[in-house]
Amino acid sequence: MKNINKIIIWVSGLIIAIFISCGITIALYGKKIIVSQIERNLKTKVSLGDISLSLPFTINLTDLELGNLLKADRISVSPSILSLFTGKIILSGLTIINPLISLEHSPDGSLNLPKLELKGKQPPILLTGLVIKNGKLVFIDKKISAEGHRIIADKINGRIYKVMFPPISQNIKFELFASFVHPDGRALGDASALGWIDFGPKDMDANLQIKDLDITYFAPYY
After folding, report:
1. Which residues, in sequence order, are CB contacts of 76 under 8 Å at separation 6+?
2. SS (H, E, C) 96-143
3. Would strands 58-66 and 70-79 be described as parallel, antiparallel, or unpaired?
């Protein structure tokens, strides 16, 4: 019993030491590294307010801006340390709070999305969970009109998560809610989607609900 207690104390001390070391490293160099890596790979200007580390092992980015594409009050993610030894990057618990996404559709049909430029062989990145809280999407379609037809989805809240048992399951569950609003603030309707997708047997089931939608505003698309 004493040996077990010693092992627990030793492992706990090691975990605390690793956490403190990572916290100090992130505080000193994390912000500069993350900003430079994003700017290098996406070729867009990046602004980051702060970066911090919280228990159990969650990286928090606050006041992140990616050019004119994305703003978010906070982005939190928990990377799996053990996955790094397998040559993979597994991210769980990715949470995005108050994101504002601005998409522009140009007359030639292109979107203002940055082109990801990765050099050399990159380890696969696996995401096991995503949560969006109070998001907003502004879509400006200049292919419809020169001034840009705006579609605004507000109060976006959603969750996507992988079924954990059995571990080999490829079943993904999702919940998504959003409200459409006119540029002048008038409500245009609500939408929600709940269901699952199983990439194993290639099967899915979903329930899509649209409530009080003002379809006349979307007339340019039909």
Report:
1. 54, 58, 59, 60, 61, 93, 94, 95, 97
2. EECCEEEEEECCCCCECCCCCCCCCCCCCEEECEEEEEEEEEEEEECC
3. antiparallel
pLDDT (tens digit per residue) in 90-131: 777 799 999 999 999 999 989 988 877 666 666 666 778 899
> pLDDT at residue 167 above 80?
no
The total of other beta-carbon atoms located within 10 Å of residue 131's CB is 16
> pTM for this one?
0.81
Only one residue has tokens 């998409």, namely 103
Cβ proximity of 91 and 82 under 8 Å? no
Three-state DSSP at 213 gives coil
- In SS3 terms, 54-95 reads as ECCCEEEEEEEEECCCEEEEEEEEEECCHHHHHCCEEEEEEE
**DSSP code, position 202:** T
Asked if 78 and 91 count as a contact pair (C-beta separation under 8 A), the reply is: yes
